[in-house]
Amino acid sequence: MPARARLDVDERRRQLVALGLELFSSRAYDEVSIDELAAAAGISKGLLYHYFPTKRDFYVATVRAAAAQLVERTSTPSTGDPLERLRMGLDEYLDYVMEHEKPYSALLRSGVGADEEVARIVDETRDALCARLVEGVPLEAQGPLVRIALRGWLGFVEAATLDWLDAKRRVKREKLRDMLASVLMKAIESAV
Amino acid sequence: MPARARLDVDERRRQLVALGLELFSSRAYDEVSIDELAAAAGISKGLLYHYFPTKRDFYVATVRAAAAQLVERTSTPSTGDPLERLRMGLDEYLDYVMEHEKPYSALLRSGVGADEEVARIVDETRDALCARLVEGVPLEAQGPLVRIALRGWLGFVEAATLDWLDAKRRVKREKLRDMLASVLMKAIESAV
To answer: What is the ipTM of this complex?
Structure first.
C-alpha cells in the first residue's frame, strides 16, 4: 500500500474512533448498532467494515483511545504539593467518569463479556496509573507492598466510583475525591 | 414428587456441590470437564445432568456455596475490640483465598465470562460483607459516603489480594492484613 493511502486509512480510522468515543460515551456497546455507526460516519456499512473488520474491533479501538484519554487527562504537573496534585488528578478522573458514565460502568462490570483484549487494556491502564502514582513514593520505600497498595487503591477508586454513580451521586464529588485522596495517603503510609 | 424423593435430590445436590467446591478450588471452570465431575462423583454423566442440567448450572451452584462459606468463615464474634475483630475476619478471608486461589482469581477477573448469575452472586456477597462492616459504624454516622467507603474498601481488598497472589505472596499475609485494616479505619474516618 502506498504511504499516502496508508496515511489516509490511519487518519480515517482516527476519525471513526473519535466518533465511536462520542457514541459509546452515552450508550453501552450493545446499544449501538453497526448501522447506526455507519450512518453517523456518513459511510456505508461495507466501508466501515473495511476499516474495522468487526464491531468488536471498532469497540476495542475505541476503548483503547478512551483509556489513553483518561491517562492523558489525569496527568498533573510533575512539581508542586503531592496531595494537591493528587486531588487535581482525581478531579479530572471523576470528571472523565461523569462524561463517560455508561462505558465506564460497563467496562468495569465486564458487561461487554469476557473480551481478553478489553480486559488487557483495562489492566494496562491501571498499570500506567500505578506507575505514575509510584513516582510520589521515595525510591527507597518502594517495596512490594507499595505496589499492592497502589493496585488496591485503584480497586477502591473504581468500586467507590461505581457505587457513587449508582447512588445517583448523592454525595458531592469533592467529598468523594477527598476520601479517595486520604485513603491513598494512608495506604502508602501503611505500606512503606 | 414425594417429599422423601425430593429430600434425596436435595441431599444429592449438596453432595455434588461439596465435590464441586473441591474440584473447582484448585482448577478453573474451563479446566474441569463434565466427564471428570461425573467420574469423581461415581455417577454417570446422564445422572449428573439430572441434578444439574448444564455444567454452568453446576458451577453456579458451586459459586453460590463458596460465597456462603466465605461469608460464614469471615464472621467474627459480635463483641470485642472492633479492630481486633476486623483483623480476625481478614485473616479468615485471606486464608480462604489462599485455599481457593484459582476460582477467586477467575471470578474476580471475570475469567468465566459475563455470566449474569455469577456476577450477581459476587455482588450479593459484597453486599453481605458490607452489611456486616457497617455494623461497626455508629448509626448516626451512617451517611451515603459510608456505604461508598465500604464498597470502595472491598474493591481495595480484592485488587490488593489479586496483586498479592500474582506477586507469589512476596509479602507476608500479616503485613497485607494490617494494611487492609488501616485502610478501612481511614476510609470510615474520612466518610463519617
So the answer is: 0.89
